[in-house]
């Protein structure tokens, strides 16, 4: 007998398009057992309660984790429907930031404690994935096409969570489509040219709506920002003022 978490993990791997033979070799579980579990996807799903589609809709219980995960999803996430009728949430995380991969995985587990989370290695990045019929409830912004080609607005309950946990939301956005870098310049002091370094934050996203969610939240926490449009159409939001960078360092900091 295998516990519920093991079965959900195996079914999540199958829902990503992997063959039964490949999943069986990876997990050591027979194809017969996996095939029998596929016929019981509905009973497994019913054990996982969703607060948003019940008789009295409520926001996710762990609103702190959700605010962070929402930022990650808007930056580098997607929700896709599987042939089984379930949905898979995928967040792309660069291999260079193992701490980000761990934080993403932990956030998904806290938002959906009864669902398994798996890591799928891709060239240069890891997809942190989890299957559930309730991801469309949690991320109503999902849909066909690229995010910057369609309207992105938050539901009232999502905006309430962002207003309650603005720094977690900003941290998710920075961890997905942002960075903290060190710029440098030179100045002539007493006839001698000296190098000066200063940190700053950048956020880059093609969606006007997502950038506005980012800058509106920066305004609410008192961070000064500036928007710059590059020649190739890319739009950067930068935070360079010393006080604002210091505030971001307290609550966000560099990726790790």
Number of helices: 11
Q: Average pLDDT, to the nearest integer?
A: 87
List the uncertain runs. 41-47
Query: Into how many domains do the coordinates divide?
Result: 2
- DSSP E strands, number: 8
Task: Provide tags for this entry.
Endonuclease I-creI, alpha+beta, 2 domains, 11 helices, 8 strands, 23% strand, 256 residues
Walkthrough of the structure:
The chain is an alpha+beta fold. The protein folds into two domains: 4-170, no CATH class; 173-251, Endonuclease I-creI (Roll). The chain has helices at 4-15, 20-27, 31-38, 41-46, 63-76, 98-111, 135-138, 156-164, 166-177, 208-221, 242-251, and strands spanning 77-81, 87-94, 118-122, 125-132, 178-189, 192-204, 226-229, 235-239. The strands form two sheets. The protein has a four-stranded antiparallel β-sheet with strand order 1-2-4-3. Strand 1 (77-81) and strand 2 (87-94) form a beta hairpin.
Offer a quick outline of the entry.
The protein has two domains: 4-170, no CATH class; 173-251, Roll (Endonuclease I-creI). Helices cover 43% and strands 23% of the residues. The protein has helices at residues 4-15, 20-27, 31-38, 41-46, 63-76, 98-111, 135-138, 156-164, 166-177, 208-221, 242-251; strands at 77-81, 87-94, 118-122, 125-132, 178-189, 192-204, 226-229, 235-239.
